[in-house]
Design brief:
Blueprint lengths: L9 H9 L3 H18 L3 H11 L7 H12 L1 H9 L5 H17 L5 H12 L7
Helix pairs in contact: 1-2, 2-3, 3-4, 6-7
InterPro entries: Transpos_ISL3, Transposase_DDE
Organism: Streptococcus danieliae
Protein name: Transposase
Length: 128
């Protein structure tokens, strides 16, 4: 039995924990704002907020180091946010192939491996 005796979402738990510490609350709020700007693909607000938060004494040094790293990669991040496409599909396919190779411990013929990859990538057809 959990301590809440009710359904609690991950966000509710995170917010409750953040209420225990002003440092954690500030970090959580900044993270949520940055995540929102990133999802909206608003690079200007994203980097303006990072620059404003860089000198905050309330944020932990490790978090500020991560923000500094993002500023170093600003040009690449802006480019990624400006284009409407990504390579997620290709990366996902590569990951599936690697998992298949790892679990199968090799195939006797390359054709069998390729057939299995094609089969995994095809849309599922369900019969009643």
């Amino acid at each position: 039995m959990d301590a809440y005796n009710r359904y609690v979402s991950a966000q509710d738990i995170a917010l409750e924990l953040a209420n225990y510490s002003p440092v954690l609350m500030e970090t959580w709020n900044l993270y949520q704002l940055l995540l929102g700007y990133f999802k909206e693909r608003n690079a200007d607000y994203f980097f303006d907020l990072i620059r404003e938060s860089q000198n905050s004494e309330l944020l932990p040094q490790s978090f500020r180091d991560k923000l500094a790293f993002l500023l170093k990669k600003e040009e690449s991040i802006r480019l990624a946010l400006s284009v409407p496409y990504n390579n997620g599909l290709v990366e996902g396919t590569n990951n599936k192939i690697k998992l298949l190779k790892r679990s199968a411990f090799g195939y006797r013929k390359h054709e069998h491996l390729f057939a299995r990859v094609y089969w995994m990538q095809s849309p599922a057809v369900h019969s009643i």
